[in-house]
């Protein structure tokens, strides 16, 4: 188990090494103390059943037009309390999730026939260069690279940001 990666992490594997990864929703708390490899799926299933509204709130922040204030109100707390709840779980603040969601929506839209400039404008970027900087920040890729590669767009579309690259 690792903490949330805020940027891509390169993992080097030796020939014959195997790695199994589980992508958990942000906010999902899993107690890994005394856990063995055979316990993993059961522990994750237990944690998912006990999940708080935090994962749903984070997912909502990634949707278009949803503000942190609106999410906090839906949770019945102030914005500051919502920020503290995220911090208690060692998670980034609401703007992190909002900006990541915007970059992901734009990156997924790169699979369409629209120009990169049009996609940038539709997703709230001031211009194409602004979207390029966001894609490089979040995915370490240019919009053109994302546009050309369907499997990259598919990875970006997954429910949580995968930030490991196996080499």
Compile the SSE list and pairings.
Blueprint (H helix, E strand, L loop, with lengths): L8 E3 L28 H10 L4 H8 L6 H8 L3 H10 L5 H16 L6 H7 L5 H12 L3 H6 L1 H7 L7 E3 L1
Parallel strand pairs: 1-2
Helix pairs in contact: 5-7
Describe this protein's structure.
The protein is built from nine helices and two strands. A two-stranded parallel ribbon has the order 1-2. The protein has a domain at 95-160: Arc Repressor Mutant, subunit A (Orthogonal Bundle), CATH 1.10.10. The chain has 167 residues and is mainly alpha-helical. Helices cover 50% and strands 4% of the residues. The longest helix is centred in the middle third of the chain and has 16 residues, at 94-109. The protein has helices spanning 40-49, 54-61, 68-75, 79-88, 94-109, 116-122, 128-139, 143-148, 150-156; strands spanning 9-11, 164-166.
Structural class: mainly alpha
- Estimate the helix proportion, in percent: 40-55%
How would a crystallographer describe the biggest sheet? 2 strands, parallel
Radius of gyration: 18 Å
Strand content: under 5%
**Poorly predicted regions:** 161-167
CATH architectural label of one domain: Orthogonal Bundle
Strand order of the largest sheet: 1-2
| Cα-to-Cα separation, first versus last residue | 19 Å
User: Which sequence of SSEs, written as H and E, runs from N to C?
Assistant: EHHHHHHHHHE
CATH superfamily of one domain: Homeodomain-like
């Amino acid at each position: 188990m690792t903490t949330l990666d805020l940027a891509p992490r390169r993992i080097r594997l030796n020939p014959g090494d195997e790695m199994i990864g589980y992508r958990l929703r942000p906010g999902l708390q899993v107690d890994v103390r005394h856990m063995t490899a055979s316990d993993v799926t059961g522990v994750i299933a237990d944690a998912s059943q006990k999940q708080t509204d935090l994962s749903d709130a984070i997912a909502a922040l990634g949707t278009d037009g949803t503000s942190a204030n609106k999410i906090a109100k839906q949770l019945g707390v102030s914005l500051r309390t919502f920020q503290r709840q995220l911090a208690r779980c060692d998670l980034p603040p609401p703007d992190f999730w909002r900006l990541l969601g915007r970059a992901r929506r734009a990156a997924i839209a790169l699979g369409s026939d629209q120009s990169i400039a049009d996609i940038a404008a539709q997703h709230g970027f001031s211009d194409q260069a602004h979207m390029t900087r966001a894609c490089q920040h979040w995915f370490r890729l240019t919009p053109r690279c994302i546009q050309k590669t369907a499997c990259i767009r598919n990875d970006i579309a997954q429910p949580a940001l995968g930030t490991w690259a196996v080499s």
